[in-house]
Description:
By secondary structure, this protein is α+β, with helices and mostly antiparallel strands. Helix content is 38%, strand content 15%. It contains six helices and six strands, in the order ααβαββαβαβαβ.
Amino acid sequence: MESIVRAFIDSKLTPLAILAALCLGVFAIVATPREEEPQIVVPMIDVFVEMPGAAIKEMEQRVTIPMEKKLAEIQGVEYIYSTTAPGLTMAIVRFYVGENEEDAIVRLYNKLYSNFDLIPAGASRPLIKPRSIDDVPILSLTLWSERYDHFTLRRIAAELDDAIKDISDVAATQLRAHWPLNPNTLRSGPPRASSASATSRAIAPPIEAARRAKGQASAGRPRSVMWPVPTATAAW
């Protein structure tokens, strides 16, 4: 071992070898292609299926699982993420990195359209929405005020949205509004409709009396009462 080390130390070729290694390193840095923001192609497609009135278990057994099996048969699919809710199923199909996006969309369309005969009764046709890795917001603006109400802020936001659309190189904008819950709004739902027997006309007078007692409103009925169930019965 010592003889090998001594041979390199005493050899006149050692400096040349070090210089050649440095030259190769500089060449690799200069010749290697690089990009500040590399464009990574990862085809992703969202598939939505609705089945109004179906419970989560029914949606999972009749829609989600069969659809996942068919989507897994598509060439180039790497992962499938699914979310099941009452009456709705969403599946996110992600292909391998580098797959051609147009070819991936065509293969998915062909697979789903060729199996429309397997759609259960009551379910809608799949809604297909291609996604891109670049479909992320680069700027989010929030408008809030203690002086103006949400209707005024909504109008200002709409004007701001129109102004932003006029800027060059702006691909898309999306306007979202948060409506605060009205404290004088009564909402009811059907989960406990069978255990309640009050009608909207029956509950309006007590509510109005309570409002008058607290001085929150003048004479009149409540501002809004929403009943998604028949007026014969109501749920709290």
